[in-house]
Each structure stands twice: as C-alpha cells, then as structure tokens.
Amino acid sequence: MKKTFVMLCALCLGQAMWTGAEAVQVRQKAPAMDQKPLKIVFDNDVHGSINRYEYLAGYRDALKEAGYPVLTVSVGDYLQGSAYAAVSKGQFCIDLMNAVGYDVVAIGNHDIDYGVKRLLALRDSLDKKTAMVCANLYDGNKEHCLPAFTFCNVGDYHVAFVGVLTTATELLEANVVNDEQGNPECSFGKDSLVQMVQKAIDIVRLGKPDWVILLTHMGVDPLDDHMASWQLLEQLHGVDVVLDGHSHSVVNTTMLSGDASKDAVAVAQTGFTMANVGCLTLERGEQPRVKLYSYENLPQSASVHKTYQDVVDQMQPILGQVVGYTPFDLKFYINNQRAVRRQETNLGNLVADAYRYELGTDIGWVNGGGIRAGLVTGDITYGQVVNVSPFNNFMCIAQVTGQMIADALEECYSKCPSDLGSFAHVSGLRCTLDTTIHNQLSWNEKGQLVVDGKRRVSKIEVERNGVWRPLEMKEVLTLGGSDYVVYEGESRGLRNAKILQDKVMTDTECFQKYIMNTLQGTIPERYREAQGRIRYKK
C-alpha cells in the first residue's frame, strides 16, 4: 500500500482534540491512474471464531491476486466469544487478526469484556499498520482512549474511516466499565454522540477523501434511549457508507442520512461468527455495492490456517480435557435460530440449575445472550464448557424481591418469540407467558416498571424442596447469576438487587463444577428436553 503524507493544520488541531496527539499526518492522494474498483473486505461480530479467519484472508488474497486494490476492515466484537478468546483474554484473536493483516478495526461492546486497560494492551499488540478507531470511548478522566478516525490510501484511492461504539455499552458491560463502588471507569458520550461523530466527519472531510465510511458497532435495534446505527445516520451528513455490527443481523440495504443532497447511504452487516464475509465495492461516480459471501464458499489462506492450527495445538492439552458426558444434544440452535434467545431450552435449564445449585440460592438466572454454544452428544471437554459460557463473568448472590422478579421476567420476555439477548432461563421459577399480548414497557423515576396494557407474564411460582407455590411480590429471595446480569446488565428489574456475595467464582467454573461434581460427570435424562418452566399461551 503506497502511503504519502501531507500536514494539514486543521486536522492537526482536530486530532489533538480527539487523542492528545501532537500532530496528525493525513495521507495524500497518489497521482490518478487507471485501476480496478476498490474492494473493502469486512466482518463484524466474529466473537472469537478464530477458525474462520483463513476464509476471509483467502478471499481477500484472491482479490489482490486479481489486481484489485483491497482494504481489510472489522467492525468490532472480535476479542470475546470462544474458549480460545476466553483463556487468552483476547490475545489469540489478535494473533489471528495479525496473521490476516487488517487495515482498520473498530471496537464492539464485548471487546471491553476484559476491561479497557486490557483492550488498550491488545491494541498495542496489533500489527502497527492496523488502526483501531473509536470516536466515543473515554477513560475516567474524560480523555479519548482511541483515535476517532483514520485514513487509508491504496493505489489511487483515499478513504476515511470513523469508528462508533454503541452507547448502550454502559449498560451491557456495566460489570466491567464500573468500579466496585459503581463509578464509571470509562464512558461513551451518550449525550453528545451525534455532535461528536459529525465533528469527526467534518474533520476528515477536510482531507478530501473519496469516501467517508462509518464503522458503527451499534446494530439495527435501539436499546432504551441508546441509538441504533440508522438513527445516528439520520442525523449526520457527509457519510458515504455504514458498515455496522452488534445486532448480529444480515443487512445489505440503503438508508437515508441527514444529508438531503445525497442519495441513500449503503448500510451492511454480515451476521455473526463470520458466517458471512462482506465485500464493499467502491468506484468513483458509482453507487457503493455490497455482497455477502458464506465463508464455506471462500478459498482458504494456508498461512492463516497455520497460525490457527498452532493455537489449537498449543491449547489442546487444556481445552481437550474431558470433564463430562451427555447422552443427547443440549441445544443452542433450533430450526437454524438461536433458540436460547427465544425460548426455554434444555441447555438453558442446565446452566440456570448450575447457577442455582452451586451458589445455593432460591433462584438461578442466566440470560440467553450469556449462552454462546451448545453441547452435542458425547464427551464434554473443558473447551466446550468454556464455549458455552466464554465471558469469564463472576458469579454473585443477590437479594431480590418478588416484585423485582416479576418485573424482570416481563422485560426479558417482552419480545418473545423474537430474538432477545436478555431472554431469561431460570431455575426455581416457573411462569405462564402469553405471547399474544403486546404491551409497552417504561420505567418511572423510581426505577419501577410501568406496563401500558396487560402483563405478558403471569402465574409466577417459586419452588422450595420440590413444592411449588405462588410468588409473593413482597417476599425476599436469593438469586444466583453472573455479575453481568445483576450489575445492571440487560434487565432493569434486577438493578436494585442487594449484593450478598460477590465474585464467588466465574461462570465457567460454576458450570464445570455442576457437571463434574453435582451431576458426577453425566448429564441426566431430565435434561433431554426443556422442562416446561415457561408455560406458553399462544
């Protein structure tokens, strides 16, 4: 990649405001030449699926061999989600990304799962030619942690990238972005996001790029008053393309920006775990074009495969240890959908029971988004256990009221049967869920749930010593769950819970202990099917 540089005073000032840098060097366009369209190969939400980088690299290399100028980009959530990511706290993911050779990476909310200090350490271990960008990640002193933008030159093309992270990270990662007193150690510019991103766009426009591309790890679904990518785009001008992430959606469309003089903006997202690899084609004077390719149909890079195999060989003695056996599948997918986010499953029952019995609480609670893989019939290895719960979240014991439980269930089942990461798998509880009811939920100033319409969840019961009885709204119970769920997480119904014991063990340790010790290594027949803890009224 040819890079020539020119100093631009306005950009120096602007970049200093973003990162504290003394100066910024803006890549100057090379002389015009007759060349093929620019190809930008991209992914989002890989979530530690390091076995698939060889396909992205193989496809990218094939484009280069065909004479195309190419850039390689990721839109975040690459450091977490698998056993390899968890045991190395993201380092193996960086190793594979370095083997691929990325030009620009944005960050996602789960890239902060190990803390901002760890994220910045991993940034430093990225290849020096790889830029990590985010316009709205601040440290505890309100200073920017990362550059807001970067420029890339390839051949005759000059491209600017601006990174944006969902401000919902303050909720979704509350267990790591807040200290033990609940004070934020980092923040995400929620109240000034539009102004901040527009400022970055205005600055990079001074460098006269051919295209300005937003890398928005924000998704298509707003959360509370945290914007989705399309809502941000509606308020911006000067954007040419949005490459999105976070919602694990497959998107290839156009959307309107706040710039009335521009055509609709191309917006794309590849899904998750690199099921698809995206290719953005850019030509001057032409509309951007996006195609998504199933990784299974792409060529493989031998060099990247070797890096992957080296990681596998290194970790096999640890991750390959057998810790149990299951005579049937414990399901993550049903009918090609992530069932753990939509309905009760046998795997959800198992994990919720693990939390309840190993922590000795009245209730066990796990969110569907906290379960990341299933278990197939046969031996269960330590690596598979980590893949089910790869977050290394700490388990805690909380004190809750019946009203808090009722409100949390109403919120967590509000979109059922649609996909929702907060979908609750429970132990020691059962209820009736009427999916035909459509209501509106809001929260008042006291943090109490307000339901406009009928409640979907009814006939909530709790179990004690094998006897079921109705849940009383004022009764006090203990709940075992991860700090992600209890420390604000995705359910506001549990946010006022009193923490009785914190950092008891990790979620992985809890699940492994339940299989090895409590179940004595074999998953019993009662888990063959979901146990009817949610009684559906349709």
Mind explaining what this structure looks like?
It is a single chain. This protein is α/β, with parallel strands linked by helices and 538 residues long. 26% of the residues lie in helices and 28% in strands. The chain is built from 15 helices and 31 strands. It starts with a strand and ends with a strand. Residues 1-17 and 19-25 have low confidence and may be disordered.
Q: Which features would summarize this protein structure in a list?
A:
disordered N terminus; six-stranded mixed β-sheet; 538 residues
Task: Give the structure's gist in a few sentences.
With 538 residues, the chain is of the alpha/beta class. It contains 15 helices and 31 strands.
Q: Give the oligomer, counting copies of the same chain as homo and different chains as hetero.
A: single chain
The rounded Rg comes to 24 Å
- Structural class by SSE content: alpha/beta
Number of strands: 31
Strand order of the largest sheet: 6-5-4-3-15-16
What global shape is seen? globular
Distance between the termini: 58 Å
Q: Let me know the average pLDDT.
A: 90
Number of continuous helical runs? 15
Question: Share of helix among residues?
Answer: 25-40%
For the sheet with most strands, the description reads: 6 strands, mixed
User: How big a fraction of the residues is strand?
Assistant: 25-35%
Q: Which blocks of ≥5 consecutive residues have pLDDT under 50?
A: 1-17, 19-25
